Amino acid sequence: MTVETFDAIVVGAGMSGNACALTLAKRGLKVLQLERGETAGSKNVQGAILYADMLEQLVPNFREDAPLERHVLEQRLWIMDGTSHVGMHYRSDDFNEEKPNRYTIIRTQFDRWFSRQVQEAGATLLCETTATELIRDPSGRVIGVRTDRGGGVVHADVVVLAEGVNGLLGSRTGLRPIPRPDHVALAVKEMHFLPAETIDARFNLREDEGVVIEAIGTISRGMTGMAFLYTNKESLSVGLGCLVSDYRDGAETPYGLLDAFKKHPSVAPLLAGAEVKEYAAHLIPEGGYRAIPQLCGDGWVVVGDAAQFNNAIHREGSNLAMTTGRLAAEAIFQLKSRRLPPTAANLALYRKMVEESFVMKDMKKYKDMPALLHTHSKNFFLTYPELMSKAAQNFLRVDGVPKREKERATWRSVVRRRSLPGLIGDAVRVARAWR
Amino acid sequence: MTARVEEKLYQNRYVVDVGRPHIRIAPHVEPSPNLLAMTRLCPAGCYSLSDGGQVEVVPDGCFECGTCRVLCEPSGEIEWNYPRGGFGVLFKFG
Ligand SMILES: Cc1cc2nc3c(=O)[nH]c(=O)nc-3n(C[C@H](O)[C@H](O)[C@H](O)COP(=O)(O)OP(=O)(O)OC[C@H]3O[C@@H](n4cnc5c(N)ncnc54)[C@H](O)[C@@H]3O)c2cc1C
Ligand code: SF4
Q1: C-alpha dist (Å) from residue A124 to A6, A134, A155, A199, A289
Q2: CA nearest A377: which of A264, A247, A246, A240?
Q3: Is B88 an interface residue toward A (CB < 8 Å)?
Q4: pLDDT given for residue A351 in this prediction
Q5: What is the DSSP letter of A177?
Q6: CB of A33 closer than 8 Å to CB of A10
Q7: Per DSSP, which regions of A12-141 are E strands?
Q8: pLDDT over threshold 50, residue B1
Q9: Which residues pair with A296 in a beta bridge?
Q10: Which of A48, A115, A195, A365 lies 20 to 30 Å (CA to CA) from residue A434?
């Protein structure tokens, strides 16, 4: 058996793995990238919104040929109950800029393009290859991986675990735990196809302009969760995710909830007549700062979803994945060019770089949000949405009842449902966790 | 309202590794609450209850999402692997 040695092995060709392998290859390192899917992207699921800034740092001219769907012109936030929604829309022509800030993408197609950039930069990609085990020397240092290709072993100075939220390698080797049920959300998603003109008309858009809708409320039946609807060129991405622990303790099925969301009177007209061409599911890391595992050790680093880098409040994940992948590559390159071995102590440079970036700062900012939303999920995802709807309706319905009486009635029903100390407590808790 | 998950899976592409299921359930007499929850929670409907009251898995339509792994692997109730490279679900859009 011949054992080939690389500067780095990158496990996974998703957002973080591609960012890492691209950065390493561009700097002239000998990189092997392993991907278990038939092609890069064939196993990946995302909403999906792409944040241009983080990609631009990797591929400055990506707008020329990346498969982008629409740039985001308008953002809607909906708080829903059974038959209504209270919403905020932000639409600005400023987003029709020359270099738009956010785009919708279709992950499978985008990943294939991203992977092509990586290969053109000189990295070797092996698809249909699952890394099954990390190889360690007697001192415990990671020196390579075993794959399911005829028991093949490959060696490298450093292994980058870019294997995503459900990564087996790291947890099998005891480098990090299997995610806890309250640290991951299960998202289900469908692709609904409609002609571009129909989408333009329904969402009040012109060519290439897009809308994203984010929705919370009784649609998650009191569980910590969120639904979304994003416009692509000729399709809509429609999905819904809730914490696995909440699903476990409840009575709902994920596809049942998705179907209920699709049938909601605020959503159904947007989807009418569409042809569904795919149904998919994936986990999303939602444990936040407190769920981040050890980031590096002798001969290894972990990036992206595998390290729980995901900002659930702003639903940013792929940009954190791209950034941590790039930073890991820059740290590895620095060690290499200074001829320092990739020991745990030296690779701590990667952790330092992540800490100085927006990634860890944002993760830290919201460190108390996951626990808060989780322990008070019934208030945030059931009671308040219902109350908001009732208040809005009371306010808007014209029926001869004096306004002051209406306001009093609304306030009474709020206090009855949640009690004054309860309301104040929740407000203080949110303010604290948000700070 | 019943959502039929089989109809949803019909649109998807899979390369099934015949005879090599990537998820196995440990023999049991009474399923644990977590294992039982999978009959409701698996987004692809891979888990079901047998006539004898045990939980069974047929992972042909599996998305490899890992939900059952998160809930049932730590207790040793299931053995969870990725399908061999190239097999399993092949998303067209993702
Ligand atoms: C429904 C949904 C909607 C989302 N929406 C958004 C959004 O709008 N915006 C946003 O920024 N983020 C979003 N995210 C989060 C985003 O998708 C992730 O944060 C991002 O994909 C993480 O990138 P990654 O490279 O860490 O992992 P992944 O993209 O999951 O890549 C991991 C790769 O590793 C491969 N792999 C795993 N194990 C092995 C192995 N042993 N051997 C070989 N290959 C292996 C996998 O096949 C995969 O290609 C969403 C996620 C979901 C599920
Ligand atoms: S991995 Fe996901 S789709 Fe596959 S059997 Fe488990 S829960 Fe179902």
Answers
A1: 10, 19, 14, 40, 33
A2: A246
A3: yes
A4: 97
A5: P
A6: yes
A7: 31-34, 49-51, 68-80, 85-91, 102-105, 124-126, 131-136
A8: no
A9: A301
A10: A48
Q: Would you tell me the crossing angle of helices A403-418 and A384-396 to the nearest 10 degrees?
A: 170
Map tokens 């698996």 to a residue: B42
Q: How far apart are CA A351 and CA A307, in angstroms?
A: 11
Amino acid at A262: K
CA distance A174 to A11: 17
pLDDT for B57 beyond 70: yes
Question: With contacts defined as CB-CB under 8 Å, which chain A residues touch B1?
Answer: 256, 259-260, 263
Short-list B40, B37, B21, B93, CA closest to A279: B93
CB contacts, 8 Å: A188 with chain B: 43
pLDDT at A382: 78
Element (H, E) at A243: strand A235-243
Cα–Cα distance, A291 to A281 (Å, whole number): 22
DSSP character string of B19-41: T--SEEEPP-SS--HHHHHHHHH
Structure tokens at A128: 């249909």
Q: What is the pLDDT of residues A102-158, one digit of tens each?
A: 999 999 999 999 999 999 999 999 999 999 999 999 999 999 999 998 767 999 999
pTM above 0.90, yes or no: yes
How far, in Å, CA of A17 to CA of A398, rounded? 57
Could you tell me the two tokens for A57?
């740092």
Cβ neighbours of residue A254 under 8 Å, at least 6 residues apart? A186, A188, A240, A242, A247, A281, B41, B43
Q: Take residue A27 and report the two structure tokens written for it.
A: 């700097």
Residue A102 Cα to chain centre, angstroms: 14
Q: Tokens 């014209």 sit at which residue? A: A398
Chain A residues whose beta carbon lies within 8 Å of the beta carbon of residue B43: 186, 188, 254-255, 281
Coil, strand or helix at A46: coil
Ligand 1 site residues, Cβ closer than 6 angstroms: A 11-17, 34-37, 43-49, 130-131, 162-164, 167-169, 187, 189, 239, 282, 284, 304-306, 310, 315-319, 321
Distance CA B59, CA B46 (A): 5
Question: Taking CB atoms and an 8 Å cut-off, how many pairs form between chains A and B?
Answer: 140
Cα A417 from Cα A4, distance rounded (Å): 66
* Residue bearing the bigger pLDDT, A260 or A404: A260
Model confidence at B2: pLDDT above 50: no
Q: A388, A411 in Cβ contact below 8 A?
A: no
- What is the phi/psi pair of residue A257, to 5°? -65, -40
The token duo for A227 is: 């639904």
